[in-house]
Amino acid sequence: MSDDDKARRLAALRACTRILANPPRENLAERLARLVSESADAYDLTGPLDFYGDEDGVVGELERRVAELLGTQAAAYFPSGTMAQQVALRIWAARTGNPLVALHPLAHPEQYERDALKAVSGLRTVHPTRDPRMPSADEVRDLDEPFGTLMLELPLRVAGFVLPTWEELTQTVAAARERDAVVHFDGARLWECAPHFGRSLADIAGLADSVYVSFYKSLGALSGAALAAPADVVAEAKAWRHRYGGQIYQQFPAALSALAGLRNELPRLPSYVAHAALVARALREGLAEGGANWPRTYPDVPHTHEFQVWLPYPEDVLNAAALAQAEERGESLFGRAEFFEPRLPGLSMTEVSVEAGTLAWTEADIRAAAADFARRLPPAA
User: Fold this and answer.
1) Which residues contact 264 (CB under 8 A, 6 or more apart)?
2) Dihedral angle, C-alpha 140, 145, 149, 150, nearest 10 °
3) 113-146: pLDDT as tens digits
4) How do residues 310-359 score in pLDDT, each as one tens digit?
5) Residue 295 preceded by cis peptide, ω within 30
6) CA distances from residue 75 to 78, 222, 235, 249 in whole angstroms, order as listed
7) Number of C-alpha atoms within 13 angstroms, CB side, residue 135?
8) Which of 99, 162, 221, 327 is most exposed, with the fewest beta carbons within 10 Å of its own?
9) For residue 42, what are the contacts with CB-CB under 8 A and spacing of at least 6?
10) Distance between CA atoms of 20 and 3, rounded to whole angstroms?
């Protein structure tokens, strides 16, 4: 997109009377105002500023809160999930004496971290499966190389925010234990997994030796992450955090926003997950009613509050239709999320994230808007 196209799209979205998913981001003034408003209810703002993440300040409070929620002995705050996860995996490699990490090729370290595990920590990776799902217990058990750590991303975002069943998850973890491996969960979006599994966050985290969670994904914080694990692992992780440059002078804005997210957004996530099933169904039906060719959502019933929408049209055709709908009708289905062609030319996908604003949309609302969107597309072949 050119700068002019981006500006036109943003102006159209800001003028919309309603947006189903992925609304435009706030400007600086709006975000600062919300931070002050929400933080006042989440933490005592008369307390001292944090310095280097001291345990008596807001960062320490956030670490204690995460450990409590996940049922672990301790937690360490990190400025980024990439750093938290690299630290966790290098610790386990040192403790097991095995630098090989078994993980999915669609997992975050393989997709978005520029080979940091190899380049920074000297670790190697192996893939139990290439199918767009979590590896099965048999695939882990039958892996032909000894590995020290099994990393599972819950949910597996690139594959469609997909999760296994609880039985499948416990069996896969057990298979790793049979191989004398430790288990680490990439739980960047762990917060919204509880409804699918029908288990508490502590029950889910309790299956693993360590868990990473994000604060800006799902919870809407400014940034930041945490690594939750036994106390001795967290103590070592804090030493590595310092070495990696994560011992930042002051982090109170991000920590305050994370506490606000735990207070305000975490309790709402089950309602978002429940509404996502209605949204996905209504989108499929409305797109079909409007004449769209082969509309699909994946999964059909979302496992979390996020899912994929697939349509057999070029990305520029779909993005043009989205812009026209926003400008002419004053509403948007997909907000700032763009369609793109991830695999085959002419087969496009976008991601939908159900959040607070989505709850105001009824099934009839979604079907009508989806049908209007579809009518802006070329006739099906």
Assistant:
1) 38, 41, 42
2) -20
3) 999 999 999 999 999 999 999 999 999 999 999 9
4) 999 999 999 999 999 999 999 999 999 999 999 899 999 999 999 999 99
5) no
6) 10, 19, 9, 19
7) 27
8) 327
9) 256, 259, 260, 262, 263, 264
10) 25
Please give the Cα distance from 328 to 314 (Å, whole number).
21
**Of 180, 176, 184, 166, the residue nearest 229 (C-alpha):** 184
- Show the tokens assigned to 183: 């288990």
pLDDT digits 0-9 by tens, 50-70: 999 888 899 999 999 999 999
Tracing tokens 């975000």 back to the chain, one arrives at: 31
Beta 225-229 vs 296-298: how paired, if at all?
Answer: unpaired
Q: What is the mean pLDDT of the segment spanning 292-318?
A: 97
d(CA 37, CA 357): 19
Helices 58-70 and 252-264: crossing angle, nearest 10°? 40
Single out the residue of 248, 242, 223 nearest to residue 49, CA to CA.
Answer: 248
> Do residues 311 and 300 lie in contact, with contact meaning Cβ atoms separated by under 8 Å?
no
Q: Is there a contact between 106 and 156 (Cβ–Cβ < 8 Å)?
A: yes
**3-state helix/strand/coil string of the chain:** CCHHHHHHHHHHHHHCCEECCCCCCCCHHHHHHHHHHHHHHHCCCCCCCCCCCCCCCHHHHHHHHHHHHHCCCEEEEECCHHHHHHHHHHHHHHHHCCCEEECCCCCHHHHHCCCHHHHCCCCEEECCCCCCCCCCHHHHHCCCCCCCEEEEECCECCCCCECCCHHHHHHHHHHHHHCCCEEEEEECCHHHCHHHHCCCHHHHHCCCCEEEEECCCCCCCCCCEEEEECHHHHHHHHHHHHHCCCCCCCCHHHHHHHHHHHHHCHHHHHHHHHHHHHHHHHHHHHHHHCCCCCCEEECCCCCCCEEEEEECCCHHHHHHHHHHHHHHHCEECCCCCCCECCCCCCCEEEEEECCHHHHHCCHHHHHHHHHHHHHCCCCCC
Of 38-42, 174-178, 268-272, the range with the lowest mean pLDDT is 38-42
How far apart CA 241 and CA 221 sit, in angstroms, is 20
Q: What is the CA 139 to chain-centroid distance, rounded?
A: 25
